[in-house]
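Thread title: Can someone regenerate the structure for this chain?

I was given the following input by a collaborator and told the matching structure tokens would be attached. They weren't. Posting the sequence so someone can regenerate them.
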Amino acid sequence: MKERVLYNWHAVRVVYLLIGVLFSVYSIVNKELTGLLPGGYFILMAVFHFGCATGGCYLPAIKQNKTKSEETEFEEIQ
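Best answer:
Regenerated them for you:
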């Protein structure tokens, strides 16, 4: 969990954090507490790196062992 919060920060995560903080501050200043919900969502999405928009739902590529060479044998059918 610590690695997920502290590492792999990129521009999109920073933008989501800024959007969340702006939503939250604007909502508190204007006493419109309904804006805290989307603001909190954006902040959590940035901090914990979840959601497809941040690239958190992709599957890493499967690494194949390239040192081992396997030959395929074919059988001719007539």
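Residues 2-53 form one domain.
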